From TrEMBL, chain A:
Gene Ontology molecular functions: DNA binding
Superkingdom in the source lineage: Bacteria
GO aspect biological process, one term: negative regulation of DNA-templated transcription
InterPro entries per record: Arsenical-R_ArsD
Protein name (Swiss-Prot/TrEMBL): Arsenical resistance operon trans-acting repressor ArsD
UniProtKB/TrEMBL annotation, chain B:
PANTHER family noted in UniProt: ARSENICAL PUMP-DRIVING ATPASE ARSENITE-TRANSLOCATING ATPASE, ATPASE GET3
Lineage: Bacteria, Bacillati, Bacillota, Bacilli, Bacillales
Protein name, UniProt field: Arsenical pump-driving ATPase
Matches recorded under Gene3D superfamilies: P-loop containing nucleotide triphosphate hydrolases
Residue ranges annotated for the ArsA/GET3 Anion-transporting ATPase-like domain, each copy included: 15-295, 331-473
GO terms, molecular function: ATP binding; ATP hydrolysis activity; ATPase-coupled arsenite transmembrane transporter activity
UniProt record similarity statement: Belongs to the arsA ATPase family.
Length: 120, 589
């Protein structure tokens, strides 16, 4: 079984909504990771701020950080091998790596439910 | 009639929370109670969780977030949970193991992320729950008193354990916005215990401190209600500064007496079933241990010899300030200061004064305990009113983000997004955006902003700096209003800050600290306003006169600090309500 590891830069939250502007790229990646997990694909995501251990334990990541500094992030490993750095993978790249069609990774629900936000 | 407050008879539980609107004497009451309990032989820890704490001023010593012995009071220890300091310690703890292992550049990106609003909240919260659940502290002390922050902040702090527990249970995708506390789940037990302790009658007493005045009583009722709802049901109330029926014909004191009695008679219903105690109005300021020990003793009759030896310096009134603002062409006007000093009233009077001279004025408040509407009634004349309500702003921001991304995500993806949007730092961002938009209005109107109590304002300003760093980095669409905000606030031709204070030690010290912090943010103060001055009121009643005499050195001190840019507003027996009275205030000479 293949595995994908995503090493995020130092972030407050995985969707980036805590930042001054919402980065659609982060939202796309959150959604894709979510879909991959649902399909029981082996995918993990690490945030430098909250899980620095993961960055130290992995030799590839640690070496990259030492050589190139924090701007190298995000880094993506496929089966432990470096496949992408400095940006997140496109849906097409993910399709190539996982064998799951891009359309399924960004799949829209058949029935749309209205999301009502509770205000407490 | 209520009984007089006696800490030894009334305060029984190990945990004692003091809460109340800023300026009601919450800190003094908590300190005096702590001293009384310690004097009786109990081992007592006094903790401040106020971002703008003044425990240090009261005891005249530096305090940290670790309990320190108060020298002059055996058995008494005090700690100050300064969120900023907590963040520094938290940051150091998180980052330390990776120093020398990861490059410095990487470490600094971690540190930057750990400086945001989320971490401040989490670090403060973490310390708070540690204190509330610490077995060791519990066995070391008979009583732990919390001199909590002004009401809004207190509520947030107290609601956190409940809210976050819900958050943890509902959290489905793990890596949420609570990232900074990745090990949060491990601490779940601690939070649950904190919630249990808060709602246990034998463990916790909530002491609502208020003044016999309408607004603080309303505030107390709101706090009582909201805390009751989250399970903190063991509540008592202390009415601080109650004036005994005056014997003299002095109009100021009989006015005050009437006003207090009316306020108590018309006390909100949420308070009527509480045990109510009172502390009489005393003729001295509570500063230092000796005066605290005096507070619960029968008051010594004040001799009239203590009368004003020297008249207070003659200072101009509010109209001088309005003249200056008008002539200088100021577009953005802030009133700042400790909670309870009357920022809202001063801001409103300034707005009324400017509107009267034909200016188009917008008045807004960021104070969570806003009472602008009650101040103006239904008729604000030419002034437009608004209010930054954090809850409403957050809701709006959430909805906006959800709408922007609705096309991109399925309902589960949206649920994940929604989850992140519920984190504490989202509120800071939402409020900040609203703030920036408000300042933007100054192109067409003079904008008068009555800011939140000191501590909160500082966090807001601090957040704005963080925000600007992120704005500079971000490639996304940043609203123009946000980009221009800080330069605008720094421009003394456009923006003026008016510090509002009382002629008393604590508000003055806090205001001075605020001025320092503003200086650091490169924002200068144009005027100081001494509000509710008894010395300027001409009262002859002994207790009030005692307080008036105590004001004089502070009036000099303030005027010195302000470099002569000071206006003074005399204390008025009638509560200020409605445009007419605000106009009167603006016209005083």
């Amino acid at each position: 079984m293949k595995s994908i590891e995503i090493y995020d830069p130092a972030m407050c939250c995985s969707t980036g909504v805590c930042g001054p502007v919402v980065d659609p790229e982060l939202i796309r990646i959150s959604a894709v990771v979510h879909h991959l997990k649902k399909k029981e694909f082996n995918v993990s995501r690490y945030n430098l701020t909250s899980e620095p251990d993961a960055f130290v334990v992995n030799h590839v990541i640690k070496q990259l950080l030492t050589d190139e500094g924090p701007d190298v992030l995000p880094v993506i490993l496929l089966d432990g091998q470096l496949v992408k750095k400095q940006s997140y993978p496109s849906n097409e790249e993910l399709e190539e790596w996982t064998g799951i069609p891009a359309s399924e990774l960004t799949q829209k629900p058949k029935v749309r439910i209205e999301l009502k936000l509770k205000s407490k | 009639m209520s009984t007089r407050f006696d800490p030894l008879a009334i305060l029984r539980t190990p945990y004692l929370f003091f809460t109340g609107k800023g300026g009601v004497g919450k800190t003094s009451t908590a300190c005096a109670a702590a001293v009384a309990l310690a004097d009786s032989g109990k081992r007592v820890l006094l903790v401040s969780t106020d971002p703008a704490s003044n425990l240090q001023d009261v005891f005249g010593m530096e305090l940290s977030n670790h309990p320190a012995a108060i020298e002059s009071v055996p058995n008494l220890f005090a700690a100050n949970l300064d969120p900023e300091m907590a963040v520094e310690e938290y940051k150091a703890k998180v980052v330390a193991p990776y120093r020398g292992i990861l490059p410095d550049s990487v470490i600094s990106t971690m540190e930057e992320q750990l400086s945001g609003a989320c971490t401040v909240e989490i670090a403060a919260f973490d310390e708070f729950t540690t204190l509330l659940t610490g077995e060791q502290l519990r066995s070391q002390f008979d009583h732990i008193l919390f001199d909590t922050a002004p009401t809004g902040h207190t509520l947030r702090l107290l609601q956190l354990p409940a809210a976050w527990n819900g958050f943890l249970e509902e959290s489905t995708h793990g890596a949420s916005c609570l990232g900074p506390l990745a090990g949060l789940e491990r601490k779940k037990d601690v939070y649950e215990q904190a919630v249990r302790t808060l709602s246990d009658h034998l463990e916790t007493t909530l002491v609502l401190v208020t003044r016999p005045d309408r607004t603080p009583l309303l505030e107390a009722a709101r706090a009582a209600q909201e805390l009751r709802e989250i399970g903190v049901t063991h509540q008592i109330m202390i009415v601080n500064g109650l004036l005994q029926k005056p014997e003299s014909e002095d109009p100021i004191s009989s006015g005050l007496y009437e006003r207090q009695q009316t306020a108590l008679r018309e006390m909100p219903e949420a308070l009527t079933n509480l045990s109510v105690f009172h502390i009489p109005l005393v003729a001295f300021n509570i500063l230092g241990v000796a005066s605290m020990r005096q507070l619960f003793k029968p008051t010594e009759p004040v001799s009239l010899e203590a009368a004003l030896k020297e008249a207070p310096p003659r200072l101009p009134s509010l109209s001088a300030l309005i003249d200056d603002v008008e002539q200088a062409g100021i577009r953005i006007l802030f009133t700042m200061g400790k909670g309870g000093v009357g920022k809202t009233t001063v801001a409103s009077a300034l707005a009324v004064g400017l509107a009267e001279r034909g200016h188009n004025v917008h008045l807004s408040t960021t104070d969570p305990a806003a009472h602008i509407e009650t101040l103006f009634g239904t008729d604000a004349g030419l002034i437009s009113l608004s209010r930054i309500d954090p809850k409403a702003e957050v809701d709006q921001y959430r909805q906006e983000v959800i709408n922007q991304n609705a096309e991109l995500l399925d309902e589960e993806g949206l649920a994940v997004l929604e989850e992140d949007l519920r984190s504490p730092c989202t509120e800071e961002i939402a409020v900040f955006r609203a703030f920036a938009e408000l300042v933007e209005r100054s192109q067409d109107q003079i904008v008068v902003i009555d800011t939140a109590p000191t501590g909160h304002t500082l966090l807001l300003l601090d957040a704005s700096e963080e925000y600007h760093k992120e704005v500079a980095r971000s490639t996304g669409l940043v609203p123009d209003s946000v980009r221009k905000l800080l330069p605008r606030l720094r421009n003394a031709k456009e923006t003026a800050v008016v510090i509002v204070t009382l002629a008393e030690a604590t508000p003055f010290y806090e205001a001075s600290r605020l001025e320092e912090d503003l200086k650091r943010a490169e924002i200068s103060v144009r005027w100081w306003t001494i509000n509710q001055s008894l010395a300027a009121s001409g009262t002859e009643e002994p207790v009030l006169k005692g307080r008036a005499v105590a004001e004089v050195p502070w009036i000099r001190e303030i005027n010195k600090r302000a470099g002569g840019q000071t206006v003074i507003i005399p204390w008025r027996p009638k509560e200020i309500r409605g445009v007419e009275q605000l106009t009167e205030l603006a016209h005083l000479h």
